[in-house]
Specification:
The structure is a homodimer.
Chain A (H helix, E strand, L loop, with lengths): L10 E2 L8 E3 L3 E4 L18 E6 L15 E7 L7 E4 L8 E2 L12 E12 L2 E5 L7 E8 L12 H5 L6
Antiparallel strand pairs in A: 1-6, 3-4, 3-10, 4-9, 5-8, 5-10, 6-7, 8-9
Chain lengths: ~170, ~170
């Protein structure tokens, strides 16, 4: 099956001629995977070491990243079509909506992975837990969420967020 | 302090005149928060009920979402400046890189939250666990990662991802 074929039950929309915000690629991800046949569907904490190269002028924005064991990585799934709202990943005609799948085919094809930080070099990170193709454009890096030791001071909304319905 | 002031130790870059990919807003998030003073820094599972309105033509892409207890939400932090590579969130002059913070100020200002799904309506989701302003543009919804019961069939890369360095 070719990449752009549509399987039984799948549905594509006419892609709207609009762009609401612009992304800038801040780096590039190096992984062992170059085809759909070998790329894992979801990264694993003990997966192979991958390298995230950060472009300038963003090297300085890594300052302090070495203090985190787990980071979140956002990347642009540059080979994915964006118009398939119903998909049949099992090829059996059973369809699900794009938002009920972690498929790379989405209106805004952004992948997110939680990875373990294995090393920091000048302008690069070494991590485990990715699941994207070699050469995937990087769009963001953040520390993983930290429910118990927030670095920032409390604001009124922090307490408010614990209340039930309002 | 005004929003666009730079604190001691912070550093802005000259914003590059480039756009590498275009996002489309697929919905809008309704929350109780309308200012920085009351918006929580991080969503909490028992936070207030928030509503995610999906635009057409993406209503059908929600099909099957009701089967998930936790979903991941990606949104565009539309009020955030993008050029601050060093930031001083504590206002004390101690700086960290943008990628070592979950600050909304980032080169590509995309927020991610893991939320609990409290209800599904026609073209809308009710969730708890968000931390963004009322009116924030939506860019993606995915089921939360599911390490034990992947819906998709295994591919060779799934096993490969468990091996150590290659």
């Amino acid at each position: 099956m070719r990449d752009n074929d549509i399987r039984a039950g799948e549905k594509a929309i006419d892609w709207p001629d609009a762009t609401d915000a612009g992304l800038i690629f801040i780096g590039r991800i190096r992984t062992p995977w170059t085809s759909r046949l070998d790329c894992p569907r979801q990264g694993q904490p003990d997966g192979p070491l991958c390298r995230i190269d950060i472009f300038e002028p963003w090297h300085e924005a890594l300052q302090g990243i070495e203090g985190f064991a787990r980071i979140e990585v956002l990347y642009w799934l540059h080979l994915s079509r964006r118009d398939l709202i119903l998909q049949s990943p099992r090829k059996d005609g059973t369809t699900r909506g794009a938002f009920a799948l972690r498929s790379p085919l989405r209106p805004n094809p952004i992948g997110t992975s939680l990875v373990t930080l294995a090393g920091v070099e000048d302008g690069a990170l070494l991590v485990r837990g990715l699941d994207c193709f070699d050469g995937t454009p990087l769009i963001d890096i953040k520390p993983d969420r930290c429910p118990f030791t927030p670095l920032a001071l409390q604001v009124p909304g922090d307490a408010e967020a614990s209340e039930k319905d309002r």
